[in-house]
Amino acid sequence: MESPEEVRAEFARRMQISAWDAVHYLHELELACGYLHPKVFDESDPCYFVYPSLYGHLEITINTSKPEKDPKEIFAEALTEAHQKSRLEIQPDFQQETLPSTTHCRPPQCDLCWENEGYPGDSEHPAKPGLRIVPITLQGERWGLQYSPYGYFEYHCIALDAHHVPMHISAQTFPRLFDFLDLFPFFFIGTNADLPYVGGSILSHEHMQGGKHRFALMDAPFEAMVAPTDEVCRALNLEHEVLMGTVLWPASVVRLVSPHRQDLEKLGAHILATWQGYAHPGVGIVNDPRIPGGLHNTINAIAYKDADGVYGEVDAYVLDLVLRNNVTDATHPYGVFHPGKSLHHIKKENIGLIEIMGLAILPGRLAQELPLVERALIHVLEARRDNTADAVVDVTADVTADTVVDVAADVTADVTADTVDTLLEKELARMAKESGCDLLQHASWAQRLIQQLDPQSVTTRDVSAAMRQGLGIAFEEILAACGVFKRTLQGQEQYKGFMELFSYYI
User: Fold this and answer.
1) Any bridge partners for residue 56, and if so which?
2) Which of the four pLDDT bands, split at 50, 70 and 90, describes residue 185?
3) What does the domain layout of the chain look like in residue ranges?
4) Do the Cβ atoms of 81 and 246 come closer than 8 Å?
């Protein structure tokens, strides 16, 4: 495979001709060497399907390439000494003008550090011989561009700070996003939140994620239109009209659209600052940035181009701001705005950028557990059908034809309603013992699914469809749990109150 220096030189040469040609070259190179694995996003992939929700087509995937990570582990990592250092305290690992060489063998501090490219590997850091990182410049700063080995979607890429500095959402975030878009207008680019429980799996290294994928959030329409107040327009010196409003989405999203990026940068920074200073304990939004550890409000910032001119002008910039809050309490140890315990059997990990946009990355254990749950459902339904039929025959043997239907109905009710939950739990326990999987964590969910199925007519395909629908509904509930302003009358009134701090409804 070409050396890092050769790849960088070729990437730079191609960038002079075509940005698309450059990123495609890097992508195909990583595929050819085996660092990336091709993904199939269609119904032929057993670990992928689309759920048609009220909010658009949500995508469900199972991540079989990355271990499940407890949010508390991520929180502990975020409290390391490296993460506590400010940007000003961190000394660069190398000159701004210099890139690491292939002989650079100092252990990387995290999986996003540039040192991973030439590092031979050890017990804590696997060797990545196929990894290649190319330099890009965002706001005059040295950043790197690489592809994610997990490849959750087409051309899944990572833009990473050349230095090991912690995630930090600030006013500077927005011009970085738009710089990236100006380089690669065919990609989206977005940030994970920078706080534990609502952030990504790596908070210790500043980075963004992007790629060539259309998420459900990007197709979600405006729900209510607003405009910045005259006071805000004057204070920010906004030069052009900005299309602005809330989005029809389970989480709380503010969308800004304009062909003029400078106006979006100013408005985005203003809304971020407003949100960082906002609190409303009445709806659970606890936040006090004046005290250490008291800042709980942050955002996911997502930028992309309106390539089809949906909002009036082709290639206008679109900026989606997803409002996040990471406060915890005794009842919600992983976050008040995190999926509750009843959903942990499906998803316990942080809900990061990709998922908040409508693509579920479910833990790999489900690839083994869910087929077993499906088998248990089928076994119980078959047993219920067979037992019901036998019971009806026994009881109605000496009953007249005029009453057989009523008797049969009574027996069916006894067999199905009184025993189905018990039968299912026993079957899950038996299969759990055989497989070594924790299937009983799915018992309550599976019991709800089986109540929707008619044992007299159900097919294996019906059970599979019910499983998928159940997962889709669960993901919708997960996204709703992340919404800081709930889709209730009270929640929407408070949402309106927040928006009116800097805008008015049209």
Assistant:
1) 53
2) very high
3) 366-482
4) no
- Can you tell me the distance from the alpha carbon of 200 to that of 109, in angstroms, rounded to the nearest whole number? 17
Q: Is the pLDDT of residue 407 over 60?
A: no
Find where tokens 């930090």 sit: 168
3-state secondary structure 385-424: HHHHHHHHHHHCCCCCCCCHHHHHHHHHHHHHHHHHHHHH
- The three-state DSSP-derived secondary structure of 157-169 is EEEEECCCCCCCC
CA angle at 475 for the pair 474 and 477, rounded to the nearest 5°? 65
Q: What is the pTM of this model?
A: 0.89
Q: 103-112 contacts: CB < 8 A, separation 24 or more?
A: 109/82, 109/164, 109/204, 109/205, 110/164, 110/202, 110/204, 110/205, 111/202, 112/158, 112/160, 112/202, 112/205, 112/207
For the chain, the helix, strand and coil percentages under 3-state DSSP, each to the nearest 5: 40, 20, 45
Q: How far apart are CA 504 and CA 380, in angstroms?
A: 56
pLDDT classification of 199: cutoffs 50, 70, 90: confident
In the block, residue with structure tokens 């230095």 = 163
Residues 20-34: pLDDT tens digits?
A: 999 999 999 999 998
Q: Which pLDDT score is estimated for 123?
A: 84
pLDDT at 81: 41
| 320 vs 337: CA distance, rounded Å | 19
Confidence bin at 119 (pLDDT 50/70/90): confident
Confidence of residue 84 (pLDDT cuts 50, 70, 90): very low
Residue 29 token pair = 């190179």
Question: Is residue 274 within 8 Å of 260, Cβ to Cβ?
Answer: no
Q: Which of 343, 347, 374, 373 is nearest to 361 (CA)?
A: 347
| Beta-bridge partners for 246 | 224, 254
